[in-house]
Amino acid sequence: MKKMFGIVLLVLMFCFALGTPGYSETKETRFKAMLGRRQGMMKNDNLATDFEKAAYYKKALERKPNNLKYRDSLSLAYYCMGEYKNALEHSNKVIEQSKYVGVGMRVGLGTQFPIIVEVFKDMPAEKAGAMVDDEIIKINGISMKNKTVAQAVGYLKGAKGIKVKVLVRRNKRKYNLVMTRELIGLPDSEENAERLSRRCLIYRKMGETEKAMQDAKHAIKMAPDFSKAKTAFGAVNLDAGDYKQAIEILSKAEQEDAFVLILTAIAYAKSGDIKKARQLYEEKIAPDESFLKKIPYISEQKKLFDALAQDTESMLVKARQFADKGKFQEALDEYSRAMLFMGKDDKEKIRDKLFQITFNMSSPPEISKLARKHVLRAKLLVKEGKFKDAIAEFKKAIVAAPYSAKLYLDNALVLGELEDYKQAIEQMNIYIKAVPQAPNIQQAEDQIIKWEFELERKK
What we know:
Blueprint: H1 2-15, H2 27-37, H3 48-63, H4 68-81, H5 84-98, E1 100-102, E2 105-108, E3 115-119, H6 124-128, E4 135-139, E5 142-143, H7 149-156, E6 163-170, E7 173-180, E8 182-185, H8 190-205, H9 209-222, H10 227-239, H11 243-250, H12 258-270, H13 274-285, H14 295-307, H15 309-324, H16 328-339, H17 344-360, H18 369-383, H19 387-400, H20 405-417, H21 421-434, H22 441-458
Antiparallel strand pairs: 1-8, 2-3, 4-5, 4-6, 6-7
């Protein structure tokens, strides 16, 4: 049945026999409507999900104020919304609550007894005279022979202010050390490295570069193989102008993370490797700009576009020259590439130019092989009823050929089936603007009216 439904939709895309989409009110839509009614709180619909998360975790913390996961999630939601002051407040609380009470030394596995592998400066262990490579013979009179590292650490931890008696052996001599437990710091873990990494990124947005660097260094020391720690460390090196170091660090982070990729592209652009920066953005980032729903990522994209502005302007000049010479396909291709590196308003202006050029062409423009590939994949996915995946392919096709009016039409129809009426209306309006004299324009306008009605019913 699902497959048949996909086939019907495919026919709609070819023939544009537009139908009426179904209706289902979602939790997110209700929440958006609520926020919209509350004094215009939501200035950007893309923030709805993060507003929802923030509201949920604020309520959850009222019930469980000491729950670190709730507070972690609230800090992240605020960060994604661009509410950096609130994000920092909760990030600080999480990190403070995550600190442990101990004596300030790191324990490792020895031959028979645990050994001290690191002594922290100005901490109880150092004050008591502990040294690296000391064997830990006893803790509070309990033998540590054949004890695991975890067991030894367990004996060292406890209530703040309590004395711990540690018998160590050093160069065949034994020493009784007395250490008073203090609030030490964060235990080494990827979870805590992530917390430090996030606070680092918050500090970056607040202009606190020294604090950001400090947290990044702490995170990478705590978990050197953890991707988020590498991302934070790469980001602060980028801010410091050490572009080569930033590229090296970021290349070892998660390469499917759009934030990592855009930071890397910025580093390439600022280091003068414009070609590499553009290639990375065109191939890995532009086809899926869903990450731009997060305010911090939007600002990073702007940094990249600013770094590439001069080169983008050269592309626009080249496109205009092609158009003046009547080389319309070449002009379309050049404008399309330039569009990738522009903000929303500038993109719309260039898209209008694209449609003007196609209007003056004697025959419809050809789409690139890349765009055709994504279109074919999208249509197969529609036949299989995999509409979300089809939308992803149509978006990639539009990136490759933003001058093709039919792509916006097809995309609008599938968005309508997914009940994403706002986006469907936006895409259909682009189609109407592209080909105002098309024979199916009345049907397109009627479909928009139906989708607008569906949106009204959801309020």
